Amino acid sequence: MALYAEVILDNPSPDIDKIFDYEIPFELINLVYTGIRVKVPFGYKNNIVMGYCIDIKNTTNVEESKIKFVTTVVSNEPVFDFKMLELAKWMKKRYFTSLSQCLKVITPPDANLRNHNKTAFLNVDLKTAEKEYEKLKSKRKAQAAVIEYIIKNGPSFVSKITKELKISVSPLETLLKNKIIKIDNVKTQYDFKNILIDTNYIAPCLNKEQENAVYNILNAEEHRPFLLFGITGSGKTEVYIKVIDEIISQNKQAIVLVPEISLTPLMVGRFKSRFGTQVGVTHSKMSAGERHEIWKMAKSGEISIVIGPRSAVFMPFEKIGVIIIDEEHESSYCSESTPKYNAIEVAEERCRICKAKLLLGSATPSMESYFKAENKDYNILRLTNRAGEGVLPKTYIVD
Fold first, then answer.
1. For 335-345, how does the pLDDT look when each residue is reduced to its tens digit (9 = 90+)?
2. Dist CA 83 CA 356 (whole Å)
3. Which of 82, 150, 274, 311 is the most exposed place for a label (fewest CB within 10 A)?
């Protein structure tokens, strides 16, 4: 019996923002399933284009003479699951954009040779490499330059080779195909030198307001979002940590959104002091390879907490228990590039789909969030006192 893949093309054009049916060839039947990236022929010229498989079915309305076949499976693992697909479909309707653009924003950065932290080694002995260099240096200067570079400098990052030689990755791909070099993945080692981590961290005792907030969040039966309205220094972060601690003890995962990269080291330091290697970080200053590595660690369950800006809301946690949005009033949670999504709305919908908790924190809530709290769409929790021994300064209004 033939099987057919429903494919959304990786193309933002609204004219082709629809599902196309492709027959799955016998040799790919066990490799094509929902969430997989595929390549398919498209148009009268049968140009090979990238697409996303969003479903598998036994029948199609396409005439047998016109049906085309899936050409290649690009990814060996799904880049989204049914819940993330549901979220993408919601985003398409909410933000009046194409499904392909929504799928693109929820999938990881491209795992290609150019973007990944990969190291090039000589795959042959030195004498053979020198012979290959002599053969190539007159006709294939870029390939020869790569061999010469590795002979002189030893194993080197692909990105460093292409940057210093001012070449594309194409010569490396040819050398790889001819088995003159080999490419190995290098697992990213994240640099936390600029992040203050307290190795002797002891969780502080919460005051009554903080304990009340944690209790209400963890014991709420309904999945209505919480607005944590706490003055500056009231200990909102300790409430986040306590909630996440309990969520992780239930074998679930947490996402913490921060509005700016500049706030990330401070937040990461607090969380790594408490949770250690369970914490992952993602932001735009990291390379595509680093962000892809974090994506894989989240998907595999190697980490349980991810901290980052608005794009972190799409981390592929399968057991998401809570999404926390710090400084929820900040405008940076709204994307200015297509799809122009609001991370708070997306988090709310993802929490609804996954039956997770959503916690928004701010000392100066946005008008929208405060309005929702006043109308009982959000639960509001107040922290009116400074945490620990902190006291509010005396203030005077002077004319």
1. 999 999 999 99
2. 12
3. 82
